[in-house]
User: Which sequence fits this backbone?
């Protein structure tokens, strides 16, 4: 049995962390930019782009999960902790797949120009402003949940490392597997 997640899973985990932070930072900082300024444009394109990359990464990670078994936590954690961890991971996957999908759907249906990596993206031939607004509304309502879920997740990982002193965090840290 491996003692760490696969190297590909570890790389994608930390890349997701970086891009989630970038998506949140860009949209929060946008409030400081003047409407129509190049700074505002850069921040919103950064938000769209980082968010879409999060969708790609989360789907890739789900695929990787079907290929690699998760390494055991040693010493073994109590069942309630394992259950809570599974629940949190499931909610994280559900949120960070549905949020970008809602964002993309809203931009497509809105019918105005929007960009990824600075390139113009397709829009609906017959825009539906009401549905676009509904998607943006759900997106904005659910987005703050991400702060709580990733916060709980990160605190739990650090608690395992510093207080319970098990290998939970080390399994997700870069570095060679023992015996390689
Ligand atoms: C990891 C993925 C994403 C996260 C965590 C996220 C998070 C957020 C947050 C926190 C807000 C601000 C909510 C508020 O003002 O109350 C927001 C707004 C928004 N996001 Fe996202 N988002 C993500 C992906 C996307 C994607 C992929 C798109 C579209 C391509 C998108 C489009 C929008 C739009 C149109 C708004 C409203 C902006 C405005 O009010 O002017 N988001 N998002
Ligand atoms: C400081 C921030 C973070 C730390 C310290 C951290 C740490 C960890 C650790 C130690 C694991 C393995 C836990 C286990 O197997 O029970 C893990 C798994 C996981 N992490 Fe994080 N993480 C952080 C941020 C994030 C972010 C921002 C996301 C996604 C938005 C995320 C998504 C996941 C998911 C879905 C898993 C389950 C394993 C998998 O399917 O790949 N993490 N994380």
Assistant:
């Amino acid at each position: 049995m491996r003692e760490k997640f696969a190297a590909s899973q570890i790389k994608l985990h930390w890349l997701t962390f970086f891009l989630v932070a970038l998506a949140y930072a860009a949209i929060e900082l946008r409030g400081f930019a003047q409407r129509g300024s190049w700074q505002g444009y850069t921040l919103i394109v950064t938000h769209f782009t980082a968010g879409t990359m999060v969708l790609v990464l989360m789907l890739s990670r789900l695929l990787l999960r079907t290929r690699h078994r998760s390494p055991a936590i040693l010493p073994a954690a109590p069942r309630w902790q394992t259950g809570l961890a599974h629940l949190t991971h499931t909610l994280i996957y559900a949120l960070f797949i549905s949020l970008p999908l809602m964002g993309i759907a809203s931009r497509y249906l809105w019918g105005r120009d929007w960009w990824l990596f600075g390139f113009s993206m397709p829009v609906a031939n017959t825009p539906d402003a009401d549905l676009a607004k509904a998607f943006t509304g759900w997106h904005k309502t659910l987005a703050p949940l991400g702060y709580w879920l990733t916060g709980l997740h990160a605190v739990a990982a650090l608690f395992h490392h510093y207080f319970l002193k098990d290998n939970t965090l080390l399994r997700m840290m870069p570095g060679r597997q023992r015996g390689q």
The first strand starts at residue 115 and ends at 116. The domain at 7-172 is CATH 1.20.950 (Fumarate Reductase Cytochrome B subunit). The mean pLDDT is 96. The chain is about 65% helix and 0% strand.
